[in-house]
């Protein structure tokens, strides 16, 4: 198409100008010819007029000059007729060819010209001077037009012939010119297109006489250069690819080596950590013995020197025990063996216990310990109180180490909350030496001490903050520090705790219990006044405060008329260094006798012992520093004789209905494993509880829509709809009604899934296998029902075949030898099976039989799913097998299935082939054992 357009354009450029020139020439020729004819006619007309008007007309034939002139004109060849006529059209004289009268009669009277047939006729009057008569005469002359028409035709034919010749020559030369230009260009275009496609083998060939010869030659040279460059580039690419492939192989080898080295290092580190943990644990035993016998030795009669020596021994042993405990905790965190508990946590009691341990060290440095706990922080939560206390103790102890004067403030606030959880933020702020930015970045690294001089002064291993960080991470929280060098530091961490069934969902802690009380607070420290005021205003009291002891009585006098002060809370220190016993006693006496106001004195134990004898008989009570929320509230109520009828945190339960009788408790048990479901059902029936068993999430939702349940036991991993999804649907149905506690049943470690399950809407977790005592505890916690404890029946002594292990050499009659300590774990452990079913032989036998019935199907599924790499389905199969093993005395199969389940959950497939072989072998051993033994006999009641 491009080639055709080029040819067309060339043809147009040549022919259009020629056509235009020919048209212009022909037009000019016709115009000039017409002009020539008109000029010739005009000249003939003028000649005839002048000639005829110059002679005199006479009718005499002998002497008539007019006739001679007319004949002379007719002799020229263009004149056909000359007629002399009167004005009325009467012909007087006629010369030449005759002219009919009707052809000119109507035209007389005015000089004019017209055409009649093949003649051009015009008329004019003769001059009077030429007439012999008095009558006016007109001359009519007819000129032949055919000679002029012939001239026009000849000119037209000539123009057409000349134009045709020109056009023919134009087309001929245009075609040659087009071929001379377009054909080489087309070849050049084709060649360039081949070059663009990378085909440089074929060059552009053009006639040597072509004007594009040099252009084609240069393009061929350019193609040759491009071909050479492409060849060189391809060579470089091939060489680079080869080198890159070798480099990648080298890097892959190095990565493999690094991975092997990393695994070796991790294994070595794990071994060292385990060794360190074991060693630390072993060292604690003799240390505890040293401390214990030191305490016993102190009770004997000792002289002063021995007491001094014994004190040094105890302090050294306690210091060494602290270091060992830190190393042990760090080792457990590093190897992942440290587990968290999940039990009730009283936040304010935990803060109080933490500060009590650290108060002696703070008092030695005259550091004031302060607490500010927000009132919306619930008192009763669920978590690990021991580890929370450990983190707080580490942070407070660290703050005491690096603070020489001032205060340490421990604050607790609610960071965020959900339906089942609270996230609390703990802050430990000190007025110590502070931290630089570089120190903050490496603060939580293990074995790091920021200042060697300080570490030598205060001691320590550098593990305290690292342990705190590890514990906070395990509690699904974060830890950090905010500090400016020389201006103190604030260590903070968050921890997610579960909502306790006895925690208030709406009201704040002790809110409104002191409404209407007006209290005066004296404390020389702004932070101390803020602490007391925070608690009082949160409880509903009105507070006036002062930082000067002299302003106590004036303040009370000022308010005595409008809003009398009900109680005064004063600090025993006038300023940071001054204690004045006489002034304190004087103010207390004035407040008691003059204003009849009870007084609460804030003082450490040493000052309390000094003041108590001098304030005997006054209306005053002491509270030791540090100040604790519950103690302060209790003391104020005691002084004002306010009776707290009920604890605001314990009066509201998660269920907004009256406590249920035991026979009224209805529980929904959900588990897809029939054996597990049967066991839980039997255990609940043994507790005299109404239980509804269902095998899927869909059935559970259907039951919830039709019936009310006080508690739901929910299996987590189920096909189609798992426990988490089922819980979500149940919570959606509870938009208007009461919230039903949902307890998760999981075969995994509770600590690993606790947060995820609580966030999903569950309220608590139980790890399989579930015992009767665990069920009783969780039911009592979440339903406020006390379940009567049954006296366990006396069971016969375990038979000799309590542990039965299959062996190829076993007697085929079914008689087995008892297992010894040197033997491996048993295939079937009868005692374990009985303990898991609460010593119910019939149930234990049923559970084992149900498990064995599923084993052939599990054996087939596990092999097929492994071979097809269906790891998700394989994990579900193994998990279900593990859940069934949890309630039967099959320790070896349970351990193998549990290990495979964990590895599949973590996507660890390296050793899966060996693990599947072990699983298949153990299943076959159990199936063979079942063929050789009578389960009903083994688990009979006899």
From TrEMBL:
Q: Gene Ontology cellular component?
A: plasma membrane
Going by the UniProt record, its keywords in alphabetical order are: ATP-binding, Cell membrane, Coiled coil, Kinase, Membrane, Nucleotide-binding, Phosphoprotein, Transferase, Transmembrane, Transmembrane helix, Two-component regulatory system
Q: Where is the HPt domain?
A: 840-933
Modified residues annotated as 4-aspartylphosphate in this record: 715
Pfam family membership, one? HATPase_c
Tell me where in this chain the Response regulatory domain is found: 666-783
Instruction: Name where it mostly resides.
Output: membrane
UniProt EC number: 2.7.13.3
Q: Which SMART domains does UniProt cross-reference here?
A: HATPase_c, HisKA, HPT, REC
Its transmembrane ranges are: 12-32, 155-174
Q: Which Gene3D superfamilies match?
A: 1.10.287.130, 3.40.50.2300, Histidine kinase-like ATPase, C-terminal domain, HPT domain
The protein's GO terms of the molecular function aspect are: ATP binding; phosphorelay sensor kinase activity
Q: Which residues form the Histidine kinase domain?
A: 278-499
Q: What class of enzyme is it?
A: transferase
Its recorded reaction(s) are: ATP + protein L-histidine = ADP + protein N-phospho-L-histidine
Q: Which GO terms describe its biological process?
A: cellular hyperosmotic response
The protein's matches in PROSITE patterns, at most eight in alphabetical order, are given as: HIS_KIN, HPT, RESPONSE_REGULATORY
- Write down which residues bear the modification named Phosphohistidine: 879
Where found in the cell?
Answer: Cell membrane
UniProt cross-references to PANTHER family, sorted A to Z: HYBRID SIGNAL TRANSDUCTION HISTIDINE KINASE J
What is the name listed in the Swiss-Prot or TrEMBL entry for this protein?
histidine kinase
Taxonomic lineage? Bacteria, Pseudomonadati, Pseudomonadota, Gammaproteobacteria, Cellvibrionales
């Amino acid at each position: 198409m491009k080639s055709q357009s080029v040819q067309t354009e060339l043809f147009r450029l040549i022919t259009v100008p020629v056509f235009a020139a020919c048209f212009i020439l022909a037009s000019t020729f016709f115009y000039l010819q017409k002009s020539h004819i008109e000029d010739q006619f005009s000249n003939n007309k003028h000649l005839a007029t002048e000639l005829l008007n110059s002679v005199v007309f006479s009718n005499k034939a002998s002497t008539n000059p007019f006739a001679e002139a007319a004949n002379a004109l007719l002799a020229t060849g263009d004149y056909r007729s000359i007629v002399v006529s009167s004005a009325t059209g009467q012909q007087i004289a006629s010369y030449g060819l005759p002219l009919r009268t009707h052809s000119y009669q109507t035209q007389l009277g005015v000089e004019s010209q017209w055409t009649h047939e093949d003649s051009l006729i015009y008329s004019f009057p003769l001059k009077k001077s030429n007439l012999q008569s008095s009558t006016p005469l007109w001359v009519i002359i007819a000129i032949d037009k055919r000679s002029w028409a012939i001239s026009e035709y000849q000119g037209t034919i000539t123009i057409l012939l000349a134009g045709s010749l020109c056009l023919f020559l134009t087309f001929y030369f245009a075609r040659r010119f087009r071929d001379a230009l377009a054909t080489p260009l087309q070849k050049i275009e084709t060649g360039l297109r081949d070059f663009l496609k990378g085909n440089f083998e074929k060059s552009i060939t053009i006639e040597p006489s072509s004007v594009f010869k040099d252009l084609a030659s240069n393009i061929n040279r350019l193609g040759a250069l491009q071909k050479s460059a492409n060849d060189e580039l391809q060579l470089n690419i091939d060489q680079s690819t080869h080198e890159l492939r070798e480099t990648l192989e080298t890097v892959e080898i190095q990565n493999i080596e690094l991975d092997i080295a990393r695994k070796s290092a991790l294994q070595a580190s794990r071994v060292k950590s385990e060794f360190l943990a074991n060693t630390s644990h072993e060292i604690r035993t003799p240390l505890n013995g040293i401390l214990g016998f030191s305490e016993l030795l102190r009770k004997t009669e000792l002289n002063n020197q021995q007491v001094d020596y014994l004190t040094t021994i105890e302090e050294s042993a306690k210091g060494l025990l602290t270091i060992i405990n830190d190393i042990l905790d760090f080792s457990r965190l590093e190897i992942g063996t440290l587990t968290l508990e999940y039990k009730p946590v009283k936040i304010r009691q935990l803060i109080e216990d933490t500060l009590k341990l650290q108060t002696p060290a703070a008092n030695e440095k005259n550091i004031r310990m302060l607490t500010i706990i927000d009132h919306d922080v619930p008192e009763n939560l669920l978590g690990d109180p021991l580890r929370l206390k450990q983190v707080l103790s580490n942070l407070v102890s660290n703050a005491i180490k690096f603070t020489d004067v001032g205060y340490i403030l421990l604050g607790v606030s609610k960071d965020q909350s959900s339906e089942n959880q609270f996230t609390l933020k703990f802050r430990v702020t000190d007025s110590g030496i502070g931290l630089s930015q570089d120190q903050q970045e490496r603060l939580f690294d293990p074995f790091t001490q920021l200042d060697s001089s300080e570490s030598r002064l205060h001691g320590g291993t550098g593990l305290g903050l690292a342990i705190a960080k590890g514990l906070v991470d395990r509690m699904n929280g974060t830890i950090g520090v905010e500090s400016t060098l020389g201006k103190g530091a604030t260590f903070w961490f968050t921890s997610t705790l579960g909502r306790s069934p006895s925690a208030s969902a709406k009201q704040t802690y002790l809110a409104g219990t002191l409404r209407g009380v007006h209290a005066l607070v004296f404390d020389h420290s702004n932070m101390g006044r803020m602490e007391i005021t925070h608690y009082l205003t949160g409880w509903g009291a009105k507070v006036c405060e002062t930082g000067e002891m002299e302003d106590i009585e004036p303040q009370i006098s000022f308010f005595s008329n409008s809003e009398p002060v009900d109680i005064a809370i004063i600090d025993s220190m006038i300023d940071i260094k001054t204690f004045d016993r006489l002034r304190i006693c004087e103010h207390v006496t004035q407040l008691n006798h003059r204003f009849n106001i009870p007084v609460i004195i804030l003082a450490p134990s040493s000052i309390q012992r000094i003041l108590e004898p001098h304030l005997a008989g006054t209306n005053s009570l002491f509270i030791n520093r540090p100040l604790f929320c519950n103690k302060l509230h209790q003391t104020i109520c005691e002084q004002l004789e306010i009776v707290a009828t009920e604890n605001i945190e314990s009066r509201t339960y998660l269920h907004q209905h009256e406590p249920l009788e035991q026979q009224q408790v209805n529980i929904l048990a959900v588990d897809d494993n029939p054996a597990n479901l049967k066991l839980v059902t039997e255990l609940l029936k043994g507790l005299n509880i109404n239980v509804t068993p269902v095998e899927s999430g869909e059935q559970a939702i259907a039951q919830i829509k039709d019936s009310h349940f006080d508690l739901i036991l929910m299996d987590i991993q189920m096909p189609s709809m798992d426990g988490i999804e089922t819980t979500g649907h149940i919570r959606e149905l509870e938009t208007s009604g009461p919230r039903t506690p949902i307890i998760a049943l999981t075969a995994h470690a509770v600590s690993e899934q606790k947060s995820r399950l609580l966030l999903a809407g569950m309220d608590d977790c139980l790890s399989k296998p579930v015992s009767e005592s665990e069920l009783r505890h969780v039911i009592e916690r979440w339903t406020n029902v006390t379940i009567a404890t049954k006296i366990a029946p006396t069971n016969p002594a375990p038979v000799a075949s309590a542990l039965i292990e299959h062996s190829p050499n076993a007697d085929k009659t079914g008689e087995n030898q008892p297992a010894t300590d040197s033997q491996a774990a048993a295939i079937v452990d009868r005692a374990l099976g009985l303990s898991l079913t609460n010593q119910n032989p019939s149930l234990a036998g049923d559970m084992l039989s149900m498990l064995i019935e599923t084993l052939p199907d599990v054996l087939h599924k596990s092999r097929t799913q492994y071979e097809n790499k269906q790891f998700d389905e394989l994990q579900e199969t193994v998990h279900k097998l593990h859940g069934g093993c949890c309630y039967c005395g099959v320790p070896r199969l349970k351990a193998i299935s549990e290990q495979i389940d964990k590895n599949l959950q973590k996507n660890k497939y390296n050793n899966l082939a060996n693990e599947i072989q072990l699983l298949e072998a153990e299943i076959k051993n159990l199936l063979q054992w079942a063929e050789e033994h009578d389960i009903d006999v083994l688990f009979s009641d006899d």
